[in-house]
Design a protein that fits this description.
heterodimer, A: Cytochrome Bc1 Complex, Chain C, two-stranded antiparallel sheet, B: four-stranded antiparallel β-sheet, 9 helices, extended, metal-binding (chain A)
């Protein structure tokens, strides 16, 4: 360091500060300046909903930090031991080492309980944040070209997150989570032909066996988070590469991005937000106990407690299973096809998820739009999409009610049969009703925007005219508002055209084309959107200086 | 998906709205402003915050931020002090949370405050003191320019040609074969992750002559131990809690015993397999295997607490409601010479959840 180098820069007497010299050193080897040129002052647009993904990112980091700490004390072993630790009610109870070490973390490691609580709370929040972030992206159309691939990455993160959570909360080998794994085994057994084999190979023999915790441990701390880290890196790289979407507004176009630079504003805001999320989760963990395994006891296959519930993100498959009628049919000379478990777990659960995963590709096919989209839609301006999104959420919530049908029954003094029947019917009916209602609300909001553009804002001021008539004074919008409310695109529905071409020869119209045309009419026909006001309409109305 | 071409009436571009390019640049917007009232007026002028124009307000913000950072330091010191000073076994009463661990409460709150204040300070700093002048970055199309695209494709074709990949089909096909086969080794290695299922799921520890041992008292059951309306859990004689395979065996053999009035039993086979109205059913739910354990003595219904399948114990454990697909298997019982309840064999059908090989 003290020796002078022979570069021209060192000719000057001034010695660069240490940080700059380190950066120079790194640039010569890693090329960091070229990287920083594009990214250090990168512009990010501002909107409260853009931080939902950040909540997910930060809770994932918190999960990794706390998870590494927990591995130092947790023993992923199902060897049976007798408990002689400091938690008196469990003295002398037979339990697996996994359960015992979780008790030790909770009662004998100072701060161990807090880290466990932060780990579990952060996992619950991580999944919730991913789902809500995904909904934000959905409702604003931020999944459109060029971001379809990133949508799929995000979807895979959600999916893997669910299974990382499931394998994680099963590790303590307590009565509740063991019951959950028993359910998983029952679901695996329902697979036609291969069910029993998959079950034996997963558990190393009959359920529960002696290998489950060790195997789930390697899935939970290595395989699944490893995949997720890779996907997360790709997800973030694409966010940088595509640049963030922004809402329409004065000066905000499809070809620019308006906001604040990464250094310093977003470094401070986003970096600070990490601490905010971590702080809130730590406080929640101090105040509210999650998964008190010491109350549940170690897992025993012949014991169970009431109100058995999975973590919330596994509530929708739980609801599917609870609502499904117990169909079992005999096939191929006495084999059993367990439809009552297979349909909800192997068919409907993937269907609920796939509906959301594939949506960007379906919408792109219907619109036929090959352009890049960087302006986020207001949900009202895409009524059919918004209707589908709201319908999907209602579907999910109906299933969450189904997953907790016992709690609904006991808390609200309802019949469990009635709750289950509500879910069975609601599964089909509620999404349709919500779709129709949401679309109508969107169209209503579009009409209101149209009114506002053409006739101005209602001021609430009532004026009496000379001839006695009362009118409300409308204040014209300024150009910024006019532009913002009319900046969105409106598609024309696809026309198939005549059955025969100009020479009278029958034209071949494929079924796909017909379907696409019908969908397109539904999306963009008269019932699917309110035409946005045109400049001509506006001028016609305003040039007369009259009021309507 | 790609059947639509420009030669069809269903064109990909017909239904796209026009997007005036002039909106993109500010100059065009100004030009158009005259005839288009909806044209983009461009970025509104920056509005100053109080901190931008009043140095005293900026100083106030600075002090607020510094205060938050300082308080965070205090909270961290509080965390360390709590860690050292508070006993791990200490329980305190905090309204409205109830009795909770003092250490967890103190550590969590001090850590939460320390972290939150760093975040709040940073955000307040960014919002009040860092420049809030909006800046503009241009976007660039993701897809490559045509020149680049052509170059890349030409390079690829050249590389492919030089490899002889397309021409030497023998090499290509054998390579595909080798690469496709090699993962099979990994699949084969998974074979020993578990044994073959065989009839493991169909057999339990119950045999002819095995006594029914009460799960709570660990004593063999006599008929007089079981009162009408009571629910008793039992396991097969010889299975002990510290046995290596206790969990695997009890997961299949767990038994639920109730005494009914013989006249109440509607199912003929159930009556035949019972003893003085005492019936023994598998405790493992036929849906996905939870232990069924909620018994309603007036109706003789049992309910599984996991997914609420309801079985009628007076009628062959028929499914009354819920997602279970078949009745709970019944165990044939009688009394031996010493007066103890005994099994007359194994279950005649597999217990627990249904599966492909299960006869039906």
């Amino acid at each position: 360091m003290s020796t002078t180098t022979d570069t021209p820069a060192s000719d000057s007497k001034r010695k660069a500060p240490a940080g700059e010299r380190v950066a120079d050193w790194a640039d010569g080897r890693l090329g960091i300046y070229s990287l920083a040129k594009a990214n250090m002052r990168k512009i990010f647009p501002d909107h409260w909903s853009f931080m939902l993904g950040e909540v997910a990112l930060y809770s994932f980091i918190i999960i990794i930090l706390t998870g590494v700490y927990l591995t130092m004390f947790f023993h992923p072993s199902m060897n049976e031991v007798e408990y002689h630790g400091s938690y008196v009610p469990m003295q002398g109870v037979q339990m697996s080492e996994a359960y015992k070490s979780t008790l030790d973390i909770s009662f004998d490691v100072r701060g161990g309980l807090l880290v466990r609580q932060i780990h579990h709370w952060a996992a619950l929040i991580f999944l919730a944040a991913m789902l809500v972030h995904m909904m934000r992206v959905f409702f604003t159309g931020a999944f459109r070209k060029p971001r379809e691939v990133n949508w799929v990455f995000g979807f895979l993160l959600l999916l893997l997150g669910m299974f990382t959570g499931l394998t994680g909360y099963s590790l303590p080998d307590d009565l509740l989570s063991g019951t959950g794994v028993r359910f998983m085994d029952g679901a695996i057994l329902s697979m036609p032909i291969v069910g029993t084999y998959v079950s034996m190979f997963l558990f190393g023999g009959e359920f529960p066996g002696h290998d489950m915790v060790a195997r789930f441990y390697s899935f939970h701390v290595l395989l699944l988070p490893g995949l997720m880290l890779g996907l997360l890196a790709a997800h973030l790289i694409l966010v940088f590469y595509h640049k963030h979407t922004q809402f329409a507004g004065p000066g905000r176009t499809n070809k620019n991005v308006v906001g604040m630079p990464l250094l310093p504003v977003y470094m401070a805001k986003a970096g600070g937000f990490f601490f905010l999320v971590f702080g809130v989760i730590a406080a929640i963990s101090a105040l509210f106990t999650v998964n008190p395994i010491w109350n549940l006891g170690p897992y025993r296959p012949e014991e169970v407690s009431t109100n058995a519930q999975p973590d919330w993100y596994m509530g929708f498959p739980e609801g599917l299973v609870r609502a499904m009628p117990g169909w079992e049919v005999s096939v191929w000379g006495g084999h059993t096809l367990v439809l009552g478990v297979m349909i909800p777990v192997m068919i409907l659960m993937p269907l609920v998820l796939a509906a959301i995963a594939l949506y960007p590709f379906i919408e792109a096919w219907v619109t036929g739009d090959k352009r890049e989209h960087h302006i986020a839609d207001r949900p009202r301006n895409a009524p059919t999409r918004t209707g589908f999104g709201a319908a999907w959420i209602s579907w999910y919530f109906v299933l969450l009610i189904g997953g907790g049908n016992d709690l609904w029954a006991t808390h609200f003094h309802l019949s469990i049969n009635a709750v289950t029947w509500f879910v069975r019917i609601g599964f089909f009916v509620v999404p349709v009703l919500v779709f129709v209602a949401t679309r109508r609300i969107c169209l209503g909001l579009q009409r209101r925007d149209r009114e506002k553009v053409l006739h101005g804002r209602e001021t609430g001021t009532i004026k009496r005219l000379p001839h006695g008539e009362f009118i409300e004074v409308h204040e014209p919008l300024d150009q910024e508002q006019l532009h913002t409310l009319t900046a969105h695109d409106q598609y024309e529905p696809v026309e198939i055209g005549p059955e025969t071409d100009e020479n009278g020869v029958e034209r071949k119209v494929t079924r796909g084309q017909k379907l696409r045309s019908r969908l397109s009419k539904g999306y963009f026909g008269d019932s699917g959107q309110i035409p946005k006001p045109s400049a001509e309409e506006y001028k016609e109305l305003t040039s007369g200086h009259g009021h309507h | 998906m790609s059947e639509t071409g420009s030669h069809e009436n269903v064109s990909d571009d017909d239904n796209l709205p026009e997007r005036p390019d002039s909106q993109a640049d500010a100059q065009g917007a100004v030009e158009k402003k005259a005839d288009n009232p909806f044209a983009d007026p461009g970025l509104p002028p920056h509005e100053h915050r109080i901190q931008d124009i009043d140095e005293r307000a900026a100083k106030r913000s600075e002090r607020t931020v510094a205060l938050m950072f300082a308080l965070s330091m205090l909270a961290t010191i509080g965390f360390i002090a709590s860690y050292v000073a508070i006993d791990i076994d200490e329980i305190i009463y905090v309204w409205p949370l109830g009795h909770i661990s003092a250490l967890n409460f103190a550590l969590g709150l001090t850590l939460g405050v320390a972290l939150f204040l760093i975040g709040a300070g940073a955000v307040h700093w960014a919002r009040t003191l860092m420049s809030d002048v909006e800046m503009v970055d241009e976007r660039h199309q993701v897809a490559a320019e045509p020149v680049v695209e052509e170059k890349v494709k030409a390079d690829f074709l050249q590389g492919a040609k030089e490899s002889g990949f397309g021409r030497r089909k023998l090499i290509r096909n054998t390579m595909f074969g080798a690469v496709a086969l090699v993962p099979l080794s990994g699949v084969v290695l998974l074979r020993d992750t578990g044994p073959m299922p065989g009839d493991k799921l169909a057999k339990t520890l119950w045999r002819k002559g095995k006594l029914l041992v009460n799960e709570n008292t660990n004593q063999p059951l006599r008929p007089e131990d079981i009162a009408v309306g009571s629910l008793t859990f039992a396991r097969p004689e010889g299975l002990e809690h510290d046995d290596e395979n206790f969990n695997n065996e009890i997961a299949k053999a767990a038994l639920m015993i109730v005494r009914l009035e013989p006249g109440d039993i509607k199912d003929k086979k159930e009556l035949d397999w019972s003893h003085e109205g005492i019936v023994a059913y598998s405790k493992i739910c036929t849906h996905v295997g939870c232990p069924v354990s909620l018994y309603e003595q007036q109706t003789h219904h049992v309910l599984c607490p996991c997914h609420q399948s309801t079985f009628d114990l007076a009628d062959g454990a028929r499914v009354l409601f819920g997602p279970a697909g078949h009745p709970l298997p019944q165990l044939k019982i009688s009394v031996n010479k010493e007066g103890y309840l005994q099994a007359l064999g194994d279950f005649e059908e597999p217990v627990g959840p249904a599966y492909w090989e299960r006869p039906r």
